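Follow-up to my earlier ticket, as requested here are the two runs.
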Amino acid sequence: MSGALAFALVLAGCTTVGNGAMRALDQQQLAQWVQPGRSSRAEVEQRLGRGKVLRFESSGWETWHYYDKDGLPKFLDFVPVVGTLTARVDSGAKELVLLFDAQGTLRKYAWREQGMGLKPLF
């Protein structure tokens, strides 16, 4: 297999998993869309869709979790020759967790973002 063909296969294998709105979201836009004490579940759902929900039944509070990951599929790490290249690529990821009270008002949120890059050889 030629090097150009192997590289084309690696690029064709790029994948994104997660909410489509999360993919384009950055911290500045998040601060405009999501405001503790003001934003409601309905507003967040309109902007980002419904996240994975964890309910605290006794209190009525709940968290919504969003996750978006860009990168190469892990199975490529096990393909001879190609895997030597793909195993060095770190994926980019965004994670958002929202905490809503029993009335559906946002109380807190946490945002984490990790950029794509290359792992060191040694």
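Run two:
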Amino acid sequence: MTVAKLEPTAFKLVGEVKFNKTRSHRYELKITWKQPAKKIAMVITNYPGHSDGIVMDLTTMLVVNRVSSLGYDGVVMVNLFSKLGLKANPKGLIEGADSVTDQVILLEANEVAQIIIATGSFPKLNVMAKKRQAQIISSIKKAGFEKKLALLCDSSGKLAHPLAAKVRKQWILTEKDMAIDK
């Protein structure tokens, strides 16, 4: 029996998280897998899950997998609402974002190659989410980053969230119809 010499593949996964002082808002979760990370995507979802830089929830894992398969060196994950724990308390959307939330999104938008809106049907079903998404898209456009914007859609062209079964293995990004009224 011949023993083959195995060469390990080395890589460095770097995670950074930005919280407010009381850790009640998570503004950003940045994960890079190529150092230095030159080509980064921003993915905007609805509200933060349980990922904190060490612990990863399913949405974070799916986003990292898909963004990596698109050829990026890393991802910045931000949300319409930055407040933690909103899933259990939808009425908390009223206080779901603070003044820092949009500042972080715009600062990071300047640094990334693409901004992917991946909110699925939530803004269509929730008036506050629809208004919030429109505000974020408007501020991104006003800042001059409109050409970076793309929507995550399924194969039928419907807006999708990373957890949607139809986009778990492949993302379809479209740059049209930023009104998001589909």
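The only thing I checked on run two: The two ends are 61 Å apart (CA to CA). Let me know what else you need.
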